[in-house]
Write a structure and sequence with these properties.
It is built from 26 helices and 21 strands. The protein is α+β, with helices and mostly antiparallel strands.
């Protein structure tokens, strides 16, 4: 089946579904009313009839899968609508049942939940990745309306992972990899530790069965000696807590296999080098007692410096709260201890699911629910900024990385960011407008490069400017998905605006040869021309002209009513004036690096807009057979700014020559962008410099001064 990654077959055998249904109803009797349980049983009968004749690869009737999913949610004590939706979660996707039929029978809320977890089966996708991404996007949109959609999906994935061994190997590996990439991190992000641990270990066993078995065997063989030590520490701590009047439960816990394997791999360590396989969890009555218990721990055994973490004062993004410390026990064994209240422990295991179980003002479960909604809201914003579903799902994978740093705003508010985040990530976390207009950052009151990774405890202040724009180079170092998506979105928007502006100017220049201008065109004439141009709006046509995908004089012919006949001579139109502020849609060729004062020519390049070359650039020879793409351009009178130019300097290879050249260039108001030294014969070397020049006059002044240096033999402008 599509949603559970098994195939419909007609083979006989399997368990009796009615027994599964009875077990489910017995479980629900603990917390649901009889009429709600009757609704659940009605859903079972409806789903069983809809899935009649369908079986899983294991041979069981297909209805056993939805019942198992519902039981998982029942163990989490979810409400009756969620249980009903779990039983029905495949009927829209895999049977002829329509959404409106479910709404009439079980209510619109259940129908929306079922539709939210149903895949898009009526659309043909180009690839498996595109299908996965589009279906995930659909689920996120449903999550924004009802967070229970993801709980049903996680329970569905958990049961599929429990029964994954009936699948063929290639499918088993694909589903397990997807689980580790997306669903286990989502469970972690929602604070559902029990789900996360089981999903990770099941996926680990499916992806790396041999490694899983070896590691499990090592833990089993180690249990004797290590557990004895842990029990000794546990006894000491229990006694110390009792002596100080603290009522506490001290529980032994074991790190799960995937976590151990991941730590071994990241630290390149052997199993013997992993010291926190076993640990302790201390459950107390209230927050004040948590800190008192921490003091007792440290008086009994020495803590390891740098390993004390306070997630009570600063909870994790998923609502997790606890005190962590690592103690140095007998024989220098390291024991990791978690200290928390019973409420915190419940939320740590169930996360957002505890919100439906405990609706009696439980603050921790409400915090977990609010943080989950905040995260989903961030996903929706990320989805709006993403260029396509595949880019969106890749951004989500980045966003699900678990390690965090905590930094402060100037007003003292705490911001949580993934490890490795920079000031630009911080700016976009505050607000997209702050990120877009960011020009510098003060970290702990010191000016700091934007690409510098932030550390926990730092105070970050963003300096903005109204005219600032996102820098494409930021994409090389930002780590948050929100920042990456927002930067790409802003750059696309700015590039489109620049293309529309350039396209309008190009068409306007072409229309001048006919005695017209864009401002004089009537709406009726524009609408008539759009029919022949095949565009839906004149701005779209201008954008295509700006990107070099349409020729401006052909558009001008349509707008002027000349028609298709070549009556308009492209050369007759006034030249396009290059201002230097056109952005990404006007680029200066790197082969000849034109600067103001050079004789130039433009070439319309599809997707790049206008590429400006010097008129004598040898690379233009390859375009003589495309005269329709040549553009008459000239520098605008008011053009300003620095333009990169390259020169080759032959020098006597002696100490200090490069420093002298750099000082001369700087003295004349220029900045060197790149230096490359090519050794020649004997004592002569060639230095290739790229620096900024305002125009040909400025370049000539720099070259004259460089020629005066005693070590300079020859200097010339370089063309590639």
């Amino acid at each position: 089946m599509a949603s559970s990654d098994v195939v419909v077959t007609q083979q006989a055998g399997g368990a009796d579904p009615s027994a599964h249904a009875s077990d489910l109803c017995a479980l629900l009797e603990d917390y649901l009313h009889p009429h709600q349980i009757q609704q659940v049983f009605d859903a079972y009968r409806f789903s069983a009839q809809a899935h009649e004749g369908q079986r899983r690869l294991s041979g069981e009737p297909y209805i056993t899968h939805p019942l198992a999913v519902a039981k998982i949610l029942g163990e989490m004590r979810l409400d009756d609508d969620a249980i009903v939706a779990a039983i029905l979660h495949d009927v829209i996707e895999d049977t002829s049942t329509a959404k409106n039929e479910l709404a009439e029978r079980f209510g619109s809320e259940v129908a929306e939940l079922v539709d939210g977890v149903s895949k898009l089966t009526q659309i043909d996708f180009k690839s498996k990745a595109e299908a996965q991404a589009e279906n995930f996007r659909k689920m996120v949109m449903a999550m924004s309306h009802d967070i229970r959609v993801i709980l049903i999906k996680l329970a569905d994935r958990l049961h599929n992972m429990r029964t994954i061994w009936v699948m063929p190997p290639y499918k088993r590996w694909r589903v397990a990899a997807e689980t580790l990439d997306i669903y286990a991190p989502i469970a972690h992000r929602l604070g559902m530790n029990r789900f996360c641990v089981e999903l990770e270990d099941l996926a680990f066993a499916a992806l790396y069965p041999m490694r899983y078995r070896v590691l499990k065997d090592k833990i089993r063989r180690q249990d004797g000696s290590r557990s004895e030590m842990i029990d000794k520490v546990r006894g000491v701590l229990e006694q110390r807590l009792s002596d100080t009047g603290i009522d506490a439960r001290v529980l032994a816990r074991e790190k799960h296999l995937w976590s151990i394997y991941k730590k071994m791999r990241s630290k390149r360590a052997s199993f013997q080098d992993i010291f926190d396989v076993h640990g302790l969890r201390v459950i107390v009555d209230d927050i004040d007692t948590c800190y008192r218990a921490l003091g007792v721990m440290h008086s009994a055994y020495k803590p390891l410096p740098g390993r004390i973490k306070d997630y009570i004062a600063i909870p994790k993004a998923n609502g997790y709260q606890s005190l962590h410390t690592t103690l140095l026990g007998p024989r220098r064994i390291r024991v990791e201890v978690q200290i928390r209240t019973a409420e915190m422990d419940r939320v740590a295991e169930s996360g957002i699911a505890s919100h439906w179980h405990y609706k009696d003002g439980d603050s921790a479960s409400s915090v977990a629910h609010d943080r989950a909604r905040e995260w989903v809201g961030g996903l929706i914003e990320m989805q709006r900024n993403a260029g396509n579903p595949v880019e969106f799902i890749e951004n989500v994978k980045v966003d699900l990385q678990p390690d965090e740093v905590y930094v402060f705003t100037p007003s003292g508010d705490i911001m949580e960011l993934p490890r490795g985040a920079t000031a630009v990530d911080f700016a976009y976390a505050v607000h997209s407008d702050i990120g877009d207009s960011c020009i510098a950052a003060m970290v702990d009151h010191r000016l700091t490069p934007l690409r510098t990774p932030l550390d926990t405890g730092q105070t970050v202040e963003i300096i903005t400017a109204p005219v600032a724009r996102p820098n494409p180079a930021w994409l090389d170092f930002v780590v948050t998905a929100k920042a990456r998506a927002a930067i790409r979105h802003s750059l696309k928007r700015l590039r489109r605006e620049e293309a529309v502006d350039l396209g309008r100017r190009l068409v306007d220049q072409a229309l001048q040869a006919l005695g017209l201008s864009c401002d004089e065109l009537s709406q009726e004439r524009v609408d008539r021309a759009l029919g022949g141009l095949g565009g839906d709006a004149i701005e779209t046509v201008f954008e295509e002209v700006g990107f070099g995908e349409r020729m401006p004089w052909l558009v001008a012919q349509r707008l002027s009513g000349v028609g298709d006949e070549p009556e308009l001579d492209a050369a007759a139109s006034a030249p396009l004036r290059i201002r230097g502020s056109e952005g990404a849609v006007v680029t200066f060729a790197r082969c000849c690096r034109p600067i103001p004062g050079d004789n130039i020519v433009g070439f319309a390049s599809s997707g790049r807009g206008v590429v400006v070359h010097q008129q004598d650039c040898h690379n233009l020879r390859g375009y003589h057979d495309q005269p329709e793409k040549w553009l008459d351009v000239q520098w605008d009178d008011g053009i300003a700014g620095d333009f990169p130019v390259s020169v080759a300097v032959d020098v006597v290879n002696e100490r200090g020559v490069l420093a002298a050249i750099a000082a001369t260039v700087s003295e004349l108001g220029s900045n060197i962008d790149a230096v490359d030294v090519a050794e020649k014969e004997g004592m002569v070397a060639t230095i290739y410099l790229t620096f900024g020049a305002r125009d040909r006059t400025h370049l000539a002044r720099i070259m004259r001064r460089l020629r005066l240096l005693s070590s300079v033999i020859r200097i010339s402008r370089r063309k590639e």
